[in-house]
User: Which sequence fits this backbone?
């Protein structure tokens, strides 16, 4: 089955303030019916990159069967990590980031595990530029960030 996974994380301009992530799984079944499953959550005291990763992870973990998945994200951090094979260097060759050890290793490992049973491609769309697929998840993440279910931090 082919699935499109739209993702977005939003730090709301302040890593210490409220933020949220949103993920929408979209697929067409054998009868030609379009289905969507939405996931969102609010967090505070975390970074935009962590929320972008969580959005992808929660979408992939929701899939119960191996699928062909296209992840559409406005995060160059997420898409470049896979499209330019940065993830291999970070985790397998212990590359360091510009300011020391690479951050978010816990989430990268969880994402690789969630990705493993699927055939996944990553597509970047410019955020906040009128792309309907990006705007959809922006709304989801913003709704989560504005909600009352905020946690002190993301721990996985």
Assistant:
């Amino acid at each position: 089955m082919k699935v499109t996974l739209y993702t977005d994380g939003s730090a709301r301009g302040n890593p210490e303030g409220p933020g949220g992530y949103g993920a929408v799984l979209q697929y067409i079944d054998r009868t030609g019916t379009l289905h969507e499953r939405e996931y969102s959550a609010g967090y505070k005291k975390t970074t935009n990159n962590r929320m972008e990763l969580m959005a992808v992870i929660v979408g992939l973990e929701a899939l119960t069967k191996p699928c062909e998945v296209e992840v559409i994200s406005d995060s160059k951090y997420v898409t470049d990590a896979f499209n330019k094979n940065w993830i291999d260097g970070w985790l397998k060759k212990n590359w360091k980031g510009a300011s020391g050890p690479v951050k978010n290793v816990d989430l990268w490992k969880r994402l690789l595990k969630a990705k493993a049973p699927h055939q996944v491609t990553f597509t970047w769309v410019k955020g906040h530029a009128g792309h309907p697929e990006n705007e959809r998840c922006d709304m989801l993440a913003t709704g989560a960030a504005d909600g009352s279910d905020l946690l002190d931090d993301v721990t996985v």
